[in-house]
Amino acid sequence: MNVNQSVPPVPSFGQPQPVYPGYHQSSYGGQSGSTAPTIPYGAYNGPVSGYQQTPPQGMSRAPPSSGAPPTSTAQAPCGQAAYGQFGQGDVQNGPSSTVQMQRLPGSQPFGSPLAPVGNQPAVLQPYGPPPTSAQVTAQLSGMQISGAVAPAPPSSGLGYGPPTSLASASGSFPNSGLYGSYPQGQAPPLSQAQGHPGIQTPQRSAPSQASGFTPPASGGPRLPSMTGPLLPGQSFGGPSVSQPNHVSSPPPQALPPGTQMTGPLGPLPPMHSPQQPGYQPQQNGSFGPTRGPQPNYGSPYPAAPTFGSQSGPQPLPPKRLDPDAIPSPIQVIEDDRNNRGTEPFVTGVRGQVPPLVTTNFLVKDQGNASPRYIRCTSYNIPCTSDMAKQAQVPLAAVIKPLARLPPEEASPYVVDHGESGPLRCNRCKAYMCPFMQFIEGGRRFQCCFCSCINDVPPQYFQHLDHTGKRVDAYDRPELSLGSYEFLATVDYCKNSKFPSPPAFIFMIDVSYNAIRTGLVRLLCEELKSLLDFLPSLLDQIPEMFADTRETETVFVPVIQAGMEALKAAECAGKLFLFHTSLPIAEAPGKLKNRDDRKLINTDKEKTLFQPQTGAYQTLAKECVAQGCCVDLFLFPNQYVDVATLSVVPQLTGGSVYKYACFQVENDQERFLSDLRRDVQKVVGFDAVMRVRTSTGIRAVDFFGAFYMSNTTDVELAGLDGDKTVTVEFKHDDRLNEESGALLQCALLYTSCAGQRRLRIHNLALNCCTQLADLYRNCETDTLINYMAKFAYRGVLNSPVKAVRDTLITQCAQILACYRKNCASPSSAGQLILPECMKLLPVYLNCVLKSDVLQPGAEITTDDRAYVRQLVTSMDVAETNVFFYPRLLPLTKSPIESTTEPPAVRASEERLSNGDMYLLENGLNLFLWVGASVQQGVVQSLFSVSSFSQITSGLSVLPVLDNPLSKKVRGLIDSLRAQRSRYMKLIVVKQEDKLEMLFKHFLVEDKSLSGGASYVDFLCHMHKEIRQLLS
Ligand SMILES: [Zn+2]
């Protein structure tokens, strides 16, 4: 029963954690214990919805077939419907128990260790400095701008490759499946030390990801209990725990902080009475013509914005709103860094909004999962579904279960309960966590999720202290931390058998194009250094196929073969598939070229995002059943139908990489870097994830790269440390302010070393009866992450315009609800934005004009499908920079400065032709050179004597021994290291042809494809809000 006692490699929990040596929280979780006994147990409201009890039957997997690695053409039968059950019956829920549960009458909050809400002033204010009531007042005529803009949330993200030009070619390929299974007990070869792949993030060297793959240092002696000073935020119950860096909200009557702006929209309509019904809440999930007539918005923007004209006869060139007077992402990011980047974020307080993803901060786990694992759209959930509908703020969590951590933060501790396995609630199967309430002297505990009363098994018994808390609470990760792991017992394994270590299989396209471009030779060379066995075969492949004329390729049979090989080896694993062309050869999964840009802006546009045949989905299901994750590396010279080819990677938790018009000399660094990183990634295999919630809310929708065969279990053939699963919640019932709402994410997976583990993340949120509390505790970056994923999935089934309109409507409703219910009465001509959402318009506009929702002429169908697929599993930091790229001036800061230069807003207006800028969005990296850059600078960086001699489109800077060259190259390296994919550099000269490409990323400006400028969009949003309010 002791934590970590039987398994040597498991670190002892008692070990002081790297970050904060020992802690002793006398008040943590305890205080409510004293009340718990008096008010017995919670009400049992019937079976928890969502939980389905399944008999502990093993999963039905096809028996290992004798399939051999070489390409087989047989189409696999697809009868693995049984996999889903597996997750429920014996996996996620463990062995079905027969233990009886008790339900006591009387309803009563289960008394989680959380402080009653009363103690938690409804003042938690998300970000920022003092209650800045940032106001931006811009009067239409006269355009007076007053007030300063206060800080708001930030962003970060990814992109896609440069437009690909299509060459004509037809591909084909016999395929040689290289099959390398890792030696027993070893993680995939390349990773030095299993589980500790050399993560290439500079500042985060070690793969702190302990993710169970490599236990953090082996267990030292166990400390009896951790002692230490009470940390900030640690006391749960104390009266008004003030949140570090949070500001108290103003007195009730005071105007909640918000950004106000008097609209430039013409004559102000009279204010209407507050009771005005206003607008109709819109069903969250439906796309469609929910909004009223919309003057021109959504379709390409007219040259002069026409919105606003509705209220007055003045379609004259409207005066421009001063861009400096509208909320600036740069300012918000900067303010958050200054205000919240200095102190660690301590997770002991329920409902705390974490610092922005763009802020560097350390996390101390004191009972809730780190924001690196879970971020929410709001940390304060409306108590009722009516309130939630009124506000239209989606309630969602972006979860990255295996997130990498910086080296300063401890990886989750691993808990071993021996043969009895993890302790769980008998009814809802939630795992033991800090919010479970021990009662009756410690003999029983009440489940914080479903209120069921459970017996404490004798071996787990412990006495309670005077506050009702177990005296060993701080010796046990599962009683004191937000995140931890359990070693799984054999009951959590397929067929009741511990898994074999996963295998990696490389499957290389050796068709004409692949050979001609040098890809095969390059790849084989690289693999030799990555795998030191199989060298001879790798030497032979390029020779064997050197003279191939084969241009037709197959795809489905290749994956099929790899999967069969894993099946035969009875293990999970990953296929690395290298492919060049549309699979047109006669074989299962054969595709046609159906690229048709004429479908854009028609009702059939959605077909461009849908797979052209069901064969891929069928195959993907089989792969998931086998725990076979597929990573796809594409090297297309023309249309390859990414929408179809990416189905298998998408459903198996894999990744897709695309290198259009691949040329060894220009692209090898990018490809090899991506491959190395991918091979070394920490991956959990054959995984099932379940998100449980406390009574009243329920997970209803999921976004990401995975497969679901029922409504609750997220099945992942593989899950790496970069992938997120986004979960949306809806109300089932009324929530309680006092008890708040709880989430528990449980991920069952097989580590690279073949160990079966459960990773648990817990998060407690506040609940509110006042809308203002909701708006004060939102996180716009997470909201945008969710909204982008929602929209990107929507385009599969709805016209793109309808999807855009839905987003706009929802955003307007969110802001109108705030205006109506939370802001003080003011002229309708003022645009008032909630402090935490003041960047919502600018970021939403970036999503609306992204390539998926509003493609430019140079964007290919494959690019759109590719980006759509990538965004689906991005985390919040990635979507942030992807949608609003970072633009860094290079010569403004002192040459000796080693920190990143402060970013400027992504607008052409911010570019000085005497400077150079780096722009990155996580996928793309540009170096823009102004036409008037000093000659000395040009010489130092490019080794040429004048601007005109700089090669446009250059992708590598010369290595020169001078401070500027070193600085810029160092900065580029640093930016690359921060992202999960290698960003190829493109040098763009001012006024050069390539500049168009670069300008596409200046997202505050009007785009060539018709996307609105930030200023125009803000005006439009203001108009929408006014319409809703009138
Ligand atoms: Zn329960």
TrEMBL record:
Keywords: Cytoplasmic vesicle, Protein transport, Transport. One of its GO terms (biological process) is intracellular protein transport. GO terms for molecular function: SNARE binding; zinc ion binding. Residues 499-535, 536-679 form the Sec23/Sec24 trunk domain. Residues 684-767 form the Sec23/Sec24 beta-sandwich domain. Residues 422-460 form the Zinc finger Sec23/Sec24-type domain. It is found in: Cytoplasm, Cytosol; Cytoplasmic vesicle, COPII-coated vesicle membrane; Endoplasmic reticulum membrane. Residues 898-971 form the Gelsolin-like domain. GO terms for cellular component: COPII vesicle coat; cytosol; endoplasmic reticulum exit site; endoplasmic reticulum membrane. Transmembrane segments: none annotated. Residues 90-101, 165-175, 189-212 have a biased composition (Polar residues). Signal peptide: none annotated. It is a peripheral membrane protein. It comes from the Eukaryota. PANTHER family: PROTEIN TRANSPORT PROTEIN SEC24C, SEC24-RELATED PROTEIN. This is Protein transport protein Sec24C.
